[in-house]
Design goal:
Blueprint lengths: L5 H8 L11 E2 L2 H9 L8 E5 L5 H9 L2 E6 L2 H11 L6 E5 L7 H8 L3 E6 L5 H10 L4 E9 H8 L9 H9 E9 L4 E2 L6 E8 L9 H12 L6 H7 L1 H4 L3 H10 L13 H13 L15
Parallel strand pairs: 2-3, 2-5, 3-4, 5-6
Antiparallel strand pairs: 1-8, 6-9, 7-9
Helix pairs in contact: 2-3, 6-8, 9-10, 9-13, 10-12
The chain binds S-adenosylmethionine.
The site of S-adenosylmethionine has 24 residues, from β1, α3 and β3.
């Protein structure tokens, strides 16, 4: 079946797009083709699509990949996809599942290789999905994701600005990010209130793994927990989360020549990595009033 405008499909099926599911469907096949081309699919690959909606991307994915696994939560759309849009495309498998609970690692193990992942994301799940994909990056070969411009800016932000935060540090540590193109509201039905941007993510694997990634995540979250505070204050307030005393955290900062009076948004990704490495390597000294170890 060729690309049919989502406006026509919605009218034909008496379907009202659900705002709560971020349903802003792509209007133009050329934009869908651009997103799919950015995955540089091999014809033997299995690709995962998040939120196929009315199949704008799915149709082009089916032409370029061996298998398409598409995760969708809206049963109204699944019915239309199965009965009308993807009828002669057995290589497409629609799975009725929340992408946030999908096991990307398990599928990649079955396929025996990391997977391309694509989605015009429902904006409500963008951040949790990015954190999930980051924790399952071993399952990912490349991701091409469309999101709100504002979230894209946060991902790409450099230290110093208001956009730089947890998402920027962690995503930039785990992925090489590229901004591909932006799309205005007129490219979607219904038109959203904001602009969108398409980013490509390629996983980075550091050899040897330089840092305990869980500790890095905790350090970054602790540092940004109270954005207006200095590192000294925010990290001290969160010290139990990091498994170190406030004094030890301060010592570690000064051993690394990081001024504890700096604010978290002034630290580079590398500064956070050094801090997490140092906290991982240097166990806290035993607190003075800790009970003595029993003698053998
Ligand atoms: N890919 C289509 C397109 O570009 O026209 C639809 C994109 S629309 C922005 C987002 C889609 O994600 C909708 O079809 C929506 O129902 C679906 N969706 C929303 N939450 C989801 C979730 N948690 N897991 C999987 N799909 C979801």
């Amino acid at each position: 079946m060729p690309f049919v405008s989502p406006k026509i499909l919605c009218r034909r099926h008496g379907l009202t797009p659900k705002k709560s599911l971020g349903q802003n469907f792509l209007l133009h096949p050329d934009q869908a083709r651009r997103l799919v081309a950015a995955l540089e699919l091999g014809e033997h690959e299995t690709v995962v699509e998040i939120g196929p909606g009315l199949g704008a991307l799915t149709l082009f994915l089916a032409q370029a990949a061996r298998r398409v696994v598409a995760l969708e939560v809206d049963s109204r759309l699944i019915a239309i996809l199965q009965d009308e849009i993807l009828t002669d495309l057995p290589q497409v498998e629609i799975i009725s599942q929340d992408a946030l609970s999908f096991n990307f690692l398990a599928l990649s193990r079955i396929e025996g290789r990391p997977l391309p992942v694509i989605g015009n994301l429902p904006y409500q799940i963008t951040s949790p999905l990015l954190f999930k994909l980051l924790s399952e990056k071993a399952a990912v070969r490349v991701m091409v994701l469309m999101m709100q411009q504002e979230v894209g800016q946060r991902l790409l932000a450099q230290p110093g600005g208001k956009d730089y935060g947890i998402l920027s540090v962690l995503l930039q540590y785990h992925f090489r990010l590229e901004k591909l193109f932006s799309l205005g509201p007129g490219n979607f039905y219904p038109a959203p209130k904001v602009d969108s941007v398409v980013l490509r993510f390629r996983p980075l694997f550091r050899e040897p793994p330089g840092v305990d990634e869980e500790l890095l995540r905790e350090v970054v979250k602790a540092a940004f927990a109270t954005r207006r505070k200095t590192l000294k204050n925010s990290l001290s307030a969160q010290s139990s989360r990091l498994g170190h005393s406030p004094a030890h955290i301060l010592d570690t900062l000064s051993a690394l020549n990081i001024d504890p009076n700096r604010r978290p948004e002034t630290l580079s990704v590398l500064d956070f990595v050094r801090l997490a490495q140092a906290l991982g390597e240097r166990p806290s000294p035993t607190p003075k009033n800790a009970p003595a170890e029993p003698a053998d």
